[in-house]
């Protein structure tokens, strides 16, 4: 079963994370399928824009600890979202954790339902938000990132908007995104592509400058004894050894 569902409505391709049984965790299969789907959208002239959405109550739970993608493959997915010559809109109607926030940050526009929650949980298992910092740091509020990346606290959609992680939120996420999609359908494809290039230039500079170093850091952290303890504790539903 393909972990990424696809449908199209009036030129907008909807790519749905459809691994609800694992809370849409970023497995090697899901990352590969989503990367391939984006490549198809890039070369399809019938696609004006892409909506990245999900099934189930979780947009993305972060890395699949049982079947994680190679860090370089996840970096490739994030870059594909940023480089896609068509706008990508995140539609979040559930919970977002760790690497899932990297997906949201790599999108051009993000809408969230008021009940959505967010957390950078990497520090809780002994790693760092290394790879996802590539799209996050150029776009989000530094003070908010410092607080939430260092503490792993959960925060709501209104705070995600204030921090620059989400564009807008409301009780009905589809109502929030309707004017966005209407605007994209009224815009010329070439104009959208060139405007997106202008808006993502700083983000891509971060990828060019830092991706190799952060990919190596991520691999090293996930292979560390600290991360093994953190991931084991998570899977066993207990506190890791360092909790005071």
UniProtKB/TrEMBL annotation:
Transmembrane segments: none annotated. Signal peptide: none annotated. InterPro entries: ClpP/crotonase-like_dom_sf (IPR029045), Enoyl-CoA_hydra/iso (IPR001753), Enoyl-CoA_hydra_C (IPR014748), Enoyl-CoA_Hydratase/Isomerase (IPR051683). It comes from the Bacteria. One of its GO terms (molecular function) is catalytic activity. Belongs to the enoyl-CoA hydratase/isomerase family. This is Enoyl-CoA hydratase family protein. It comes from Streptomyces roseirectus.
